[in-house]
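[Q] Does anyone have a clean structure-token version of this?
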Amino acid sequence: MAAEKTLRICDHGHRYYKSSDCPTCPVCNEERKPHREFLRELSAPARNALLQEQIDTLEKLSTYTEKDILALHGVGPASLPVLKQHLAQAELAFKN
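[A] Here you go.
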């Protein structure tokens, strides 16, 4: 049985419904979405997980192993192909 969605209002006045305890406002999250770079192509949970760890450039990403990145809450296996593609385009790779 799915959890009931409740109405929430963020600090910026956006109204949204959520069923989880996650406090992230989807409207604010969309507004903060980068307009370029690899972060734009990731899901919001994956992008937020990387930003929480201050991984905001491909150079910083390349200092982590795939296992390190997958261990971050919000990053799943679907994110890896996107990250690998961008690393390869920059002639970088995950740390071994």
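[Q] Thanks! Anything notable?
[A] Residues 14 and 86 are 33 Å apart (CA to CA).
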